[in-house]
Amino acid sequence: xxxxEQHPSTLSxxxxxxxxxxxxxxxxxxxxxxxxxxxLGKRPQLIIDIRSNVGEKKDQRIAVTLNKTAKHFSLHxxxxxxxxxxxxxxxxxxxxxxxxxxxxxPGTRLSVLP
Amino acid sequence: ETGVTxxxxxxxxxxxxxxxxxxxxxxxxxTVSWYQQALGQGPQFIFQYYREEENGRxxxxxxxxxxxxxxxxxxxxVNALELDDSALYLCxxxxxxxxxxxxxxxFGEGSRLTVL
Lengths: 114, 116
Known about the structure:
The complex is a heterodimer of chains A (114) and B (116).
Chain A: E1 4-7, E2 10-14, E3 19-25, E4 32-38, E5 45-51, E6 56-59, E7 62-67, E8 72-77, E9 86-95, E10 100-104, E11 108-113
Parallel strand pairs in A: 2-11
Antiparallel strand pairs in A: 1-3, 3-8, 4-5, 4-9, 6-7, 7-8, 9-10, 9-11
Chain B: E1 5-7, E2 10-13, E3 19-24, E4 31-37, E5 44-50, E6 53-57, E7 64-68, E8 74-78, E9 87-94, E10 106-107, E11 111-115
Parallel strand pairs in B: 2-11
Antiparallel strand pairs in B: 1-3, 3-8, 4-5, 4-9, 5-6, 7-8, 9-10, 9-11
């Protein structure tokens, strides 16, 4: 089955700097890669996603890149702000014997220091 | 449009007991997935229901079972609770098809289970 790895596990940046989180996946058939942000005690919320037929997607300060050949995808946050502090999860939509389901990475705790 | 709601928000059980967690899916969604999130870890897929039938299951033992009702709400049942079952249980709804989850996941706030 699919396996998703995520690095780093923790990341501290100064306010205004950029943050990059990287994920790798194992199943070449995975075709959809969302990123979720989870604030302390809150539900995970989708912040950006990318499909396998696209190499890059950007939404204001957030961008995601996908390298299908290398089977890795990355989240880029520019001009970080204190409210970006949270745990970020990458995920890959994989297929098992039943159908397509999501496999999540272990998460990255991002701290933006004022 | 109502979001995904889960109940209870917190509960404490003792080892060997049974627990039922409930989830109401977002309006218009026909697929419900359940995830277990242990402290400091990513969500782990338990199973998924589409049109009242299980159509996906992760690496969890049979004592984890579920139901989906005609209104697309769902229950997660865990029998013979173990200490390691302590976790946040997240329900997510989406618009799926018979082939599995095809759309974005919308999560509920979760039910935090503590097993003593």
